[in-house]
Every structure is written in structure tokens, then in C-alpha cells.
Write a structure and sequence with these properties.
GO molecular function, one term: ferric iron binding
Strand content: under 5%
Family: Belongs to the Dps family.
Protein name: DNA starvation/stationary phase protection protein
Organism: Paraburkholderia dioscoreae
Number of domains: 1
Radius of gyration: 24 Å
InterPro entries: DPS_DNA-bd, DPS_DNA-bd_CS, Ferritin-like, Ferritin-like_SF, Ferritin_DPS_dom
Order of helices and strands: EEHHHHH
Bound molecules: fe (ii) ion
Structural class: mainly alpha
Shape: flat
Length: about 200
């Protein structure tokens, strides 16, 4: 049962002594969770309980790592330094936008499987497999290396989860993991990794 704190002044009297009901917002409401994290409420999508539970658990791990990678892109977008500032500043934000889309796709896949998606930063920080970078600025090669390592964590998990989802007949999750997560991450790895090749604009004699 929801509770409201604070005095209610929803009733007042007019000059003619008629009671007037003035609607007021009921603030600071709290209640029991509708569905605890980890609890699956099956929807009629013709998948077994085991398939749903397995996919939800795998997807939540990939979601936590994707949210971390997303936020690392914004960190580097703000903190990038050096002669490649302009191009990387823009590239990081392009990749960030794609990761934002992936986060929503993953979270909504978890919900439609009957699960609860991980959402808040503190919970994500506890779950993620991506190593935490320092708060301060780092050089471009370090930024790129950290991003590539985070992408590879997501790629390994996505391939493994896609295989498992297929075995369980959860082809929708397999499609999300392959068509969205895997392909996006592989493409972004290409765009990043090319920056770490030491190529000159002049042919060496
Ligand atoms: Fe910006």
C-alpha cells in the first residue's frame, strides 16, 4: 500500500462554507517492488521458463557492460586531447549514440522476456566486467585501448549468449545479439583500431 507523508490540505472552505476539494500532488510515495530483480514473469511468447531465465541473465550482463561502454564513450568525448581532437570528439559521440540504441534494445528485450533490466549506475558498476578507468584525462592511445578492450568483452559475451539463445529456441534474442550488438560492436572496433596503426602520410624512401 502506498503511503503519503506530509500534511494534506486537500480540503478548504469557501466563503459560503462549501467544501472545495483542491487536488494536490501526493509526494514521497513508496511501496513494495512490483517485480523484484531476478524474478521472471512469463509472457505468452511460447518460450520455456528456462529459455527466458537464461536469456535474461545473459542479456543483463551484456546490458551492464554496454552501459559502461556507452558512458566510457562520453567520458572520452569530453576528455579527448591532442591533434586528433576534432575527429575523435565526433567519432566518440557517433559511437555513443549507437550504444545508447543498443542499451534500449537490450533492456526492452529483457522486459519482454518477462525479466527486469538492470538500470541504475550503481547497480551497473557492481555488475560490469569492464575495468573502471580513472576519473582523470588519459592520452588518446589509452582511450582507444580501453574502448577496444570493452568492446571485446561485449563481443565475447554476445557471441556466447547468441549461441546459447539459439540452442534454447530464443531466436529473437539471438537476432538482437547478432544483428544489433555483435555487428555494431565489430564495426566500432574497426573504426577505433585503425587509429592505432602508425601510418605516415609520406612514403618512406
Ligand atoms: Fe558533446
Amino acid at each position: 500500500m502506498a503511503k503519503t507523508t506530509g500534511a494534506s490540505r486537500s480540503e478548504t472552505r469557501s466563503q459560503s462554507s462549501d467544501v472545495i476539494h483542491v487536488p494536490e500532488p501526493k509526494l514521497h510515495q513508496r511501496a513494495h517492488e512490483l517485480q523484484p530483480y531476478g524474478h521472471v514473469v512469463k509472457l505468452p511468447i511460447a518460450l520455456s521458463q528456462t529459455a527466458c531465465e537464461t536469456s535474461i541473465e545473459l542479456l543483463n550482463q551484456i546490458l551492464a557492460d554496454t552501459m559502461t561502454l556507452r558512458d566510457m564513450y562520453k567520458k572520452h568525448h569530453w576528455q579527448v586531447v591532442g591533434p586528433t581532437f576534432q575527429s575523435l570528439h565526433l567519432l566518440y559521440d557517433e559511437h555513443y549514440d549507437k550504444q545508447v540504441e543498443l542499451v534500449d534494445t537490450l533492456a526492452e528485450r529483457i522486459q519482454l522476456l518477462g525479466g527486469v533490466s538492470i538500470a541504475m549506475a550503481a547497480d551497473v558498476a557492481e555488475m560490469t566486467m569492464v575495468p573502471r578507468p580513472p576519473r582523470g584525462r588519459e592520452e588518446v592511445p589509452v582511450q582507444l585501448s580501453r574502448l577496444l578492450e570493452a568492446h571485446e568483452i561485449v563481443i565475447v559475451a554476445a557471441r556466447s549468449a547468441a549461441r546459447k539463445a539459439n540452442e534454447l529456441g530464443d531466436f529473437g534474442t539471438n537476432d538482437v545479439l547478432v544483428s544489433d550488438v555483435l555487428r555494431t560492436n565489430e564495426l566500432q572496433v574497426w573504426f577505433l583500431a585503425e587509429h592505432l596503426i602508425d601510418a605516415s602520410l609520406a612514403v618512406t624512401a
